[in-house]
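Cross-posted from the bioinformatics board.
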Amino acid sequence: MIEVKQATKIFSSKQGPAINSVSFDVKNGEVVGFVGLNGAGKTTTIRIAVGVSLPTSGTVLIDGHDMTTEKAEASKSVGWVPEIPNFEPNAKAWMLMRYLAGFYGIDRTEATKRSKELLASVGLSGFENRKIRTYSQGMKKRFSLGVSLLSDPQNFLLDEVLNGLDPEGIHFFRELMRGQKRVNKAILLSSHILTEIENIADRIVFIHRGHVIKTVTREELRAHEGIKGVLRIILQNPDEDAISYLKTLGGDLQVQRNEIVLSDFHGDSSQVNAELVRKGIPVREIKYEKTGLEEYFFDLIKGADARR
Amino acid sequence: MIIRPILYDIKKTITSKTVLILIAIVLLISLAIIPLTSIGSTGPQNKLFQAPILYYHDVNLGSYHYLAYFSNRYGDPISGVTVTVILQGPQNYTKTIVTNSSGLAFVGINAPNASYYVTLKEETPGETFSMTLPPTASIKTTVSRAVLALSGQVISTVVDKHNASKSDVQVFYAGDYGVVPSSYSLYYKVVATPFYCSGSCLTEANMTKLGDLNNYRDVFDPSIPSGLSDTDEVFFALFNQTGSAVQSSNFGLVELRHPRQPVMESSIASFFFSTILGLVIPLMAIIGSYSSYGKDRLTGVLESVLARPVTRLGLATSRFLSSLIAFTIASAAAVGVVLRPSDNCRTTSRSGCFYGLDLFTISLAQVDWSSSGNQYRLLYCTRLFLGPDNLVAHASPRRYPRVCGRTPINNIF
C-alpha cells in the first residue's frame, strides 16, 4: 500500500512548490491513475514516493514504512519504472541487473538466474549481453520493468510507462498491470492522457499545478453526464437479427450502410462481439471509444484555475 | 548485503577508461624512473667491477689453477663471463671457462713446470679486459699449494645495497688447493694517518673481528663508528687458523663512507611519492570519484541505484569505499614498480615492474568475477613469461600452471 501524506516539494524559494500538500493512497489490489498535464507534479510525487527525491515536508508510507526515515526498508517493497529510464550506459544488462539485485540481498547465483529470467520475461531475451546504451527507449523501459520486478515488490510506481511504446509494448504493460493487480499488488500509474488509463485504473487522481484537484472512481467517471461510450461496429451484412440485438443494449442506435454506431454505450465491447459471433453474424470491425473524457479533464483544470 | 555492489563499483572504477589511462601513465612513468630508483643507477649493474684472480700451482698433479670471481659494484655475482687463461712458454696452453651462477670460474691447465707468461682475458658482452703477467710475477715454479692473488683485490669495497652512501667490504679467497676457505676471519682496525706499521702491528689481538669467511666470497658490513676524522684509514686483514694475516688492505674512511654518487632509496622514494604519486594519484582520485559518483549523480544514473533498498549515506559510503580500494590497488601497483619488496627479489631491474604488474593484474582478475577473465589471464601469463625469475619471489608458484593452464581464472582468484 502506498500512502502519500501532505507531500510538498519546493525546489527553489523563488518559485512556488512543485507539489503542495499532495495526499492520496493506493490500496493493495488497486490500480490508481495519476493524471495531470505536463509539469503538474506527477513525476515529482513519484520520485518522492520511491525515495530518489526528498520531500520538503510530508511523508510517503510504503506498507507502513516511511520512505524518508526508513528508506532501506520501504524501498524493498517498491518497483519503479521511470518515464525515462536512466541506467549505467556501459553496463551489460544482465550484469547491471545482478548488481542491483545485490542491494536486495539476493545471493549471486540466485541473482544471476533471476536476472536472466526477468530479462526473458520482459521480452529482452537475446539482449542480455548487450550494453544498456545500445538499447532503444522501449527496451530500456522493459529493462526498467524487469529491474522493478527483481524483489517481487508489493507496490509499483509506473511513471508515464506507456509513453513512446509501440502497440505491442503498450499491450505488454497493460497485461502486466492486470496480472499484478490480480495478485493484490498496489499500482500507481501516471499519465497526462486520461483516455490512456481510464479503462485500466480503478481510481483516478487528478493533479494540477502541484495540487490534487479531484479523485474519482472509474464508476463515477463513467457515470458522469458528459462522458459517453461509443461502440462502432462494422458488420459484413447488417440484418434484422443484428439490429434488434444491438437495440437491446440501450443507447442511441444509428445505422449507416454496414456501420452501426451505438452511442452512450457502457457495456463490455468484447461481450457484444462474442454474442454477435454466437448468433452467426460476421463482424468485420468493432471499436469502443469514450467521448468527453478530455473535456471532463479540461473542465477540472479550468475549475481549479478559477478557484485560485 | 551491500558487499557485492561495492565489488561491482570497484571494478567499474578501476576499469573505467580514464582511470586505466591514468594507471598506465603512472606505470609508464614509474618504469621510466626505475633506473633512477635502482641503487645501481651510478653505473650499469652488470658492469664488471671486481675480478680478483687467485692462483695456485699443484706440483704433484702438474697443473696450474686459476680461480676468478666476478661481481658488480654491489658484490652481486655475474655469471656468463668468459675467462680465458693463456700460458706462453716452451709450449702454449689455452683454456676458456665461463663463470657459473655464483660468479665463479675455475680454470685448471695441465702443463709441465716451466716459466710462462700468463695472459688473463675476461670478456662480457660489450666489455673485454686482458692483461699479461711476466713469468717472475705470475708463475712460481716452486711447490705451492696456497693461493696467491694475481690481479684485483682479495679485500675490496662494494656499495651497500641498502644505503649507497656507505661501503661494505667484500672478501674473495680460497683455502689451500683452491678449496672453500674455512677458519679464515676478517678483522679491521681504524688508524689515524700517517700510520706507520712496524713489526706485528696488524694482529688479531689489536684488531676488531668482523666475521668468518665460510665461502669463496662474502660481504661484511664494517659498521665504522662515528666521530672519526675523514683522514683516518681502516685496515682490514684476513687471518688464517694459525692467526697469520694472509691478506690485508686499507681504505680511507672517506671511501668507505662516501663512495661515488650517494643515492638513497629513501630519497628516491621521496621523489617518487612527492612528484609522481603526489600529482597523479590525486588527479586519478578526482577523476575516478567523478566517474564513480559525481558523473552518475549529474546524469541521473545514481537514481537508478538510489531507488534500491539503500540509504543515501550507504550508497555514498559504498562508492567512496570502492574508489578508495580501487585507487589503493592502483597506487600499490605504481609503488610496486618503483620500490622492490626485498633485495633478494631483485634479480634484474625488471623485478619491481613485474611486482607492480602482479598487483595490478591480480587486482583486475580479482574484481573480474563476472567475465571470463581471459584478458587478465593473458596479461598475467605474459608477465610470467617475461619475468619467470620473479615467479618464485612474488607469485605463488602453484598459480603459474593453473592460471596459464585450462583452469578458468575465476576459480583461482
